[in-house]
Design goal:
This protein is α+β, with helices and mostly antiparallel strands and about 120 residues long. A hairpin with a 2-residue loop joins strand 3 and strand 4.
């Protein structure tokens, strides 16, 4: 129950960060392993090729935040928190055909961090 409260508060904070396009604040919520993965230029280049808008160059984590993270979560409505394990949860919006997973969180050192998708 405490975890769910913490996660929902984190999502509220992330919603404000998304509205304000506040990259520096967003970084504080990203897990160390996700920062390492998305600092790799090869991974950034690969995700650019998968975007619906062609020709967008993703050269940094800030580009990832602006062109991948924000668009995928605009108008999101998280209704459920589902545990994958004791330290990993999904924040989802249930749908009949397929649930939308907006966030994955990983608990490290007693704090919930964003676990960003990998390719």
């Amino acid at each position: 129950v405490e975890d769910k409260k913490d996660i929902m508060e984190t999502i509220d904070a992330l919603n404000d960060i998304i509205k304000n396009r506040d990259y520096d604040s967003w970084l504080k919520y990203v897990s160390p392993s996700s920062k390492q993965y998305w600092s790799n230029p090869k991974n950034l280049a690969a995700v650019a090729n998968r975007l619906p808008i062609k020709g967008v160059k993703i050269r940094s984590m800030k580009d990832y935040f602006l062109y991948v993270f924000i668009p995928a979560r605009q108008n999101s409505k998280v209704e459920e928190i589902r545990y994958v394990s004791s330290t990993v949860v999904k924040a989802v919006e249930p749908h009949a055909e397929e649930d939308l997973i907006y966030y994955m969180f990983e608990k490290t050192g007693g704090k919930w961090y964003l676990k960003l998708d990998t390719l």
